[in-house]
Write a structure and sequence with these properties.
The protein is mainly alpha-helical. It has helices spanning 10-35, 82-100, 108-124, 128-139, 158-166, 176-189, 205-208, 210-220, 224-240, 268-282, 292-308, 331-346, 352-367, 396-413; strands at residues 63-64, 241-242, 247-248, 394-395. The chain is 51% helix and 2% strand. A hairpin with a 4-residue loop joins strand 2 and strand 3 (247-248). Helix 1 (10-35) crosses helix 14, helix 2 packs antiparallel against helix 14 (396-413) and helix 5 packs parallel to helix 8 (210-220). It is globular and about 50 Å long. Keywords: Hydrolase. One of its GO terms (biological process) is carbohydrate metabolic process.
């Protein structure tokens, strides 16, 4: 579909950008630690250390929605300052690790949480979140689920494995950390297209697999991983991206469905997955990769549309174009929107004056759904379309999105 001539030197260039991004986060944290000292009121009860091999599939472990979750937190500040942002991140991350670490598994649901926990350690300077992911990886023998290849959900954990591999200096990198992920990606990139079914036929897949392929590219310098990702991304986009609304349908079943108000049906979390995937691809993709401008343009279009339909409380509803049909905001979609838009401001892709008020409002809105013990509520359970849920509803993928958002908001705080 695309004629691409890419030098393998892009691998070194992308790695430099990757490490500069991590250094920037460290500098913000260092400046903060050098000027302020604070004690978070977050829950800090240590999690029980799981033993033995991890259970590979356990979707029911991802979250719950109790009738009585207790009171909401009163000790958090929405200020866009590192101290306040780190306090909110630690409160949520501490609760989530203590509550969920014994249930950690290799499902896509937890993969999104691991992305957030790795970002939380880089932002807060606390290694325990990274350590929790590392322990899961070691118990899993650094392997992915591989019983329904080439399903993207089963490849999502590869992002965390690759991050843990890439974060070590080159001379200290441990091949086992990427071996199984690379082996599966190697099978994927030689797989012929199925004319009857897209590989990534649902929009969530754009968060699950493309960031893995881009990181295997970064680790190897081999352009075949980017080129394959690029082809598959635009096949999916051609089917599911609405060029008028600048939003993604979840899958082809929704191309003609309408909300109760007659508007097209666009799912909040599904579009959050796509924007999150765009960020994770743009973090790695070389500046002069031939089709990079298309990714940037789609990202800008989606960010502008999402900003235009932001709710008065700073958040987005499960059905994006019929917000009045949903009583509660939906935090997982809102978190990934915040993450993506804050990233765009930080990278000078989005206009700061236009978009900073958007993420200031959304960050404040998300904090209002954190409970006193650190539970992050108003997260839609596992689904593939808009739905309703209790205020207490908390699921690990939404927490992962919140922690990713916090990491980019903390970068913003360093630029205030």
């Amino acid at each position: 579909m695309f004629a691409v001539d890419v030098s393998t030197t892009f691998g070194a260039e992308a790695e430099c950008r990757y490490r500069r991004s991590n250094l920037a986060s460290a500098l913000v944290l260092g400046a903060f630690l050098g000027t302020a000292c604070f004690s978070s009121m977050a829950q800090t009860a240590p999690a029980a250390q799981p033993t033995g091999k991890v259970v590979p599939v356990d979707g029911y472990a991802a979250g719950d929605q109790p009738d009585n979750p207790g009171p909401l937190a009163t000790d958090l500040s929405p200020e866009i300052k590192s101290k306040a942002i780190v306090a909110a991140m630690k409160k949520v991350a501490d609760w989530q690790v203590a509550y969920a670490e014994p249930k950690f598994n290799k499902q896509w649901t937890f993969a999104a949480l691991y992305d957030g926990l790795l970002a939380a350690s880089k932002t807060t300077g606390d290694p325990k979140y990274r350590d929790a992911v590392l322990h899961l990886a070691e118990r899993s023998d650094w392997t992915l689920i591989d019983n329904r290849f080439p399903h993207a959900d089963d490849q999502a954990l590869g992002k965390a494995y690759m991050e843990l591999y890439l974060d070590d200096p080159k001379s200290d990198r441990k091949p086992i950390r990427m071996a199984n992920t690379k082996e599966i990606m190697d099978r994927l990139v030689v797989r012929p297209d199925d004319p009857n079914k897209l590989l990534w036929w649902w929009c969530d897949a754009l968060y699950m697999a493309p960031p893995v392929l881009s990181r295997v590219y970064l680790a190897t310098g081999d352009k075949k991983y980017l080129d394959y990702m690029d082809r598959q991304w635009w096949l999916t986009s051609d089917l599911l991206f609405d060029k008028e609304e600048h939003l993604y349908f979840r899958d082809s079943r929704y191309l003609t469905q309408k909300q109760a108000n007659g508007q097209k049906l666009f799912w909040s979390r599904g579009n959050g997955w796509v924007l999150g995937g765009l960020v994770k691809v743009l973090q790695i993709m070389p500046k002069d990769y031939p089709s990079r401008p298309k990714y940037v343009e789609q990202y800008k279009q989606m960010a502008a549309r999402v900003a235009a339909i932001q709710g008065k409380d700073g958040l987005w509803r499960s059905g994006l174009l019929d917000p009045d049909a949903y009583e509660l905001p939906e935090i997982s979609g809102s978190a990934f929107f915040t993450y993506a838009i804050a990233y765009g401001i930080n990278e000078n892709i989005l206009d700061r004056k236009t978009y900073l008020p958007v993420v200031e409002k959304s960050w404040k809105g998300m904090l209002s759904h954190i409970y006193a013990d650190g539970r992050l509520g108003s997260i839609q359970p596992i689904d593939g379309q808009p739905g309703k849920f209790k205020p207490s509803s908390s699921y690990v993928f939404g927490v992962g999105g919140f922690l990713l958002a916090g990491s980019e908001m903390n970068r913003l705080a360093g630029k205030h």
